[in-house]
Amino acid sequence: MCGIAGVWRKRNPIDASDLSDVIRMMQALVHRGPDDHDSWSNNRLALGHRRLTIIDPSPAAREPMLTASGQGVLVYNGEVYNYRSLRETLQAQGLVFRTVSDAEVVLEALHHWGPEKAVPLFDGMFSFAYFDARNSALWLARDRLGIKPMSVADMPDRFLFASEDKAILACDGFPRDIDSREMTFAAGLAEPRFQLQPVRPHRALAARRPVEDHRQRYRKAPLLACAGRAGDRAHHWRRILRR
Q: Out of 45-59, 150-164, 188-202, which region has the weakest mean confidence (pLDDT)?
């Protein structure tokens, strides 16, 4: 379990208040990553990460993690189970790795293949924010079952995101009004009509400058055919959950 946080400016450059908000969000997420923390920013984006060290404890594996060129940046929470096979494929295509972490595999896959091709290849539980400086695009995504959380807040001048709602609520000036429809949305019965909302499972969200918002499914959900005997249904669900 790690914690990720970020501020994306829609028009104006990142300023001191945005950097302070990333610090506030990381403080609210300290329980998710007690081992390490770091931040990164440029003129449009500020990222923070709280790290729980599991696979690679070395300083080289800390996040936000950058590609060797500095053109790709990642903050990541979770685990991609097939990262070793993805790593081998990337190495066969000429990529050189600096760590043994799955985070670097996720970063290089996103940067080398592009999110639209890479994300469907990830088998695991994850949420991440990836920035590609080559086309000034920020990508947010979650695993298809929604195991790893991420919330977003789309505001007039900026876009906030974090692993938990309370991190966004810690930002200076964020409205804390309660919408009576929130419980309905939480139960999955209505579209969100309030500012703070989760990134939906099985979705990728991209933001670019000039301002553009693009949301898409990154993989078709399996058909849930539940007819037949109980034993058949149990076998069906075991097969689905192993994917």
A: 188-202
